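Q: I'm writing up a methods section and want to include an example of the input and output format. Could you take the sequence below and give the corresponding predicted structure tokens, formatted cleanly so I can copy it straight into the document?
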Amino acid sequence: MIRFRHLWRRLNDATQPDQAPLWLRRALDVAALTFILWFAFRHAGFWLRDDLYLYGDHPGQFYRLWQALEVVWPEDGRLIGWSPYWYAGYPELQFYPPGFAILGWGLWTLSLHRLSIMAVYQTLLFLAYLLPGVGFYALLAWGIRDRVAGLAAAWLAMISPALWGGVLGLSYGLAGERFVSGLIPLTVLAGLGMMRWRRPWAGAALTTLLLTTTLLMHSFHAVAPVLMLATAALLTRDRWQHLGRLAVVVLLTWGLAAFWLIPLLGHQRYTTPIVRANLQQTIGFLRAQWMDLFYLPVAAVLVGLALRDRARRAATVGVLAGGLAVTAFIFLDHHLLMDRWKFYLLDPVRFVAGAHVALIAAIALGVSELAWLLPRLLRRWKLAPIALVLLVAVPYFFYSRINQVFPFELWMQKWQPAADKTPLFYSEAAKAYDLPTAWSAIASTEGRVLFTSYYWHLGEVTSTIKAVTPIFTGREIIGGTFSHWTPLARYLWTGDVNTRVLWGRAEEQDDRSLAGVRWDEMTDDFLFTLCRRLNVTLVAATRDDQRARAFLDAAPHFTPAWTDGNFFLYNVEDYSPTWADADGATVEVTRYQRNAIDLRVTDASPGATVHVKVTEYRLWQAHAGDQPLPITRDDMGLMQFTPPPGDSTIELRYRPGLAERLGIGVSLLTAISLAWLATRPALKNK
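A: Here is the clean output for your methods example:
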């Protein structure tokens, strides 16, 4: 009995680190982190291979990484630059959070470029699966001082089937969203350290780095940790001092991310927001299918708040209240910003992951409270052996209930490759569908390729494999990707380049319509004009696109060129490919590169117009000798300008502008300030 009491006291003290021996705390941490790593390898280790996972948006996300590391970085010395291969060009990572690509660049650089881009991408997928487990354990075990809750939260995070921030989203390709689910707890932990450590500015520097990473990985989710830390600060004695430091952290975060944020704000008019879910769908995403089991744990954590010390209470309330604030904003966004004010930039459903962070933490803390309740009572009655049994029994009860409602082991097998399944990795699909032959057929002509749909069903697997066409063929593509913001993308989606907001997802148009025209109402002249204006010489359909293929088979300007039963390729007849044409002049393209286009214009009459089949963007500049020429946007979002009368040579160049230079300068100054701030206490003590 004495030994059991001694063991019980040590285990009980382990959740209160101020009392437990350091060796015991470290031993439990090592055991817990080892379990988290083992669990991740067991269920997500299949991603660790030098091959491309094909499910959902992964091919398109891989292309973004490939474009940054293989094209833009070697040529420009930066990761954010002009991407010509999708939708007639666009600065891809300027309007999509670049954090994933930056992280990939760091991993690629650390490997001394020995890792292939595919291996880098797949490694990032595994890390995205692992990070929430580590982040939740760290926050609850070290920040809120409850190792039982930390382990429970880590497990819940690694089995969460949520689309936004959960395993389902990661399987579809939302890797950045998944990374954020691990970064939010780590950011909150660093912020709590800023309030507790003897060197608060070191904590502020760490919080800034993590919050900046969160913002660059998914900008919407940088709000949640700030709300959580602000609430926690309000519950402390030195609340104004802590809130002041938090304000400095927010300012430093904006400064570090200025290289991306300032150009983003400066060029915002080029984007069109996408609203992916209505209110009822958002509510459905907020309620994960297994979370209804946990009303009792959530109630338990609320009761337990009255029994905890001030520091733990402040941290717990901060996390929970921050999550409630995010949830409230989601409803406010739907009802006020969108419905009443018609403001669509903040897609409400993209904030769901921040709310789930608080919910997972609440559930885990509640399970811990219930697990410790009876043991603490029995300890007073000197029934330690029974207490130890109950300490294990309560978490196991909830574990078994989850497995009944949500069989994670079976569900996760759906995303893993197997001999009797449709190929889930590129090397397997290449053999099964003879993709090299298809790529060779697509690469055989010049100009762009127009895909009649976005996704392709490889057996049971829905994939954006068309998005990697530029990698394997060197050809630019129109369509064949996921939902996109570019002017031309919204034209292909709705038929209107000035569409104010895009509702739903682009794949909802697959084999239904193109450029706002239904396939059963499409005309040969309309599609031919579209191809000519976009320099499309090849139209590609897949076996899924039955309506599109039926139209193309009968259209005079489109003749079948090649098929293997999966891809159906059609040549555009009566059109010679060119990257520019003109009204009232003759134009010849003498140079066509990613950042440079040269044109020779002859016999230009006054008021002539040259049309360049590249997306209009303000960083493109046109000059005829020393004379600048204003570039305007046509009705499809492409460049056009008026040349000087007569003959001239026109140079178009893509160069960073004032916003880009200012952003880089602000980020560099902020980095220097952050380094000074982090070492400030050490310099003072010295």
